[in-house]
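Researcher: Here's the sequence for the chain we discussed earlier.
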Amino acid sequence: MKSGVRVTGGAFRGRGLAVPAGTRPTGGRVREALFSIWRERLDGARFLDLFAGSGVVGLEAAGRGALRVVCVDQDRAAVRSIAANAALLGEAQVEVCRLTLPTGLPRLGGRGAAGDGGEVGAGRFDLVFADPPYSFDAYEALLGGAAPLLATEGELAVEHAARRELPLTAGSLARVDIRRYGESAVSFYRTARGPASETAPAGEP
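Model: Thanks. This is the structure I predict for it:
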């Protein structure tokens, strides 16, 4: 394990989590900005954390009011680390899943529901965050695989190197915003309802 990472806000603020070797935890500045942007949407949300690593983003979402959290990684050590971190925080509602990404995304189709019955969007997620390694190159496949997992008004955020430009559209998704934080950037996507366009300027929230 690498040295730990600390939760930046919510019920678990200040708690340290273990980080599996070989992973790059989502930075505190990016996490604070992300949860500031999503502040009004977190309470009761179904949250999916892809390439979760230590699970810090998903666990922080749980501590900030998300109703259901699923953390996914393809590395066995990361999955064990996420489970251990969830147990450390006493967060029993966080589900940990090992899948090859992005090809395993279709298997998550039923993981967003928690007694939703047949309502629109049942089995889907309100908020999805993905933080693949900066060497990752399958963004089109990631966006395409994640699109069916979004609830009707859901939103997907993908962290990537600031020098890397992600596509404006991918399948049913359209990029609606991009925020840059030093060498990192976060691109936001929603289901397209018309011509793709940037709806908010890049910059700090």
